[in-house]
Design goal:
Blueprint lengths: L4 E4 L8 E2 L5 E7 L7 E6 L12 E3 L6 H64 L2
Antiparallel strand pairs: 1-3, 2-3, 3-4, 4-5
């Protein structure tokens, strides 16, 4: 989990900062075990080409020892729960698809029963002479 981070963009294009290389500087959040939740600014080009004079700067103080101990475990638990939820949603979709199929089959059978009842009535009417 050494290079995981997320970014947020600056509010307006005119307020954006530029790196010496001409790339935009974005605010990122580190989700590594050593710096969980710690924000930093970095040139968007530095993600592909580390170092080489690109802008990179921490915005927050280092994460406290207790945070470094707790946050990674909480993040792992959260990701596991998200995976479980994803699996449950896929299973729910499968069940809904099966339910829709069964409902269609039920309507088809109800129609067929209705047709058979009409035929039976007609046959009975013919037999009784009405």
């Amino acid at each position: 989990m050494s290079h995981i981070s997320s970014s947020s963009t600056n509010p307006s294009p005119s307020a954006r900062k530029l790196c010496r290389c001409g790339g935009y500087i974005k605010t990122w959040t580190s989700w590594t075990d050593l710096n969980p939740g710690r924000r930093f600014e970095a040139c968007e080009m530095s993600r592909r080409n580390r170092g080489n004079g690109h802008h990179w700067e921490w915005l927050d103080a280092p994460t406290c020892a207790r945070g470094k101990e707790l946050i990674p475990g909480l993040l792992r638990r959260m990701r596991a729960m998200e995976e479980d939820l994803k699996l449950i949603e896929e299973q729910k979709k499968e069940v809904e698809d099966k339910l829709n199929m069964v409902e269609r089959e039920k309507k088809e059978l109800e129609y067929e029963v209705g047709e058979l009842c009409k035929k039976k009535r007609l046959l009975e009417e013919k037999r009784t002479g009405q």
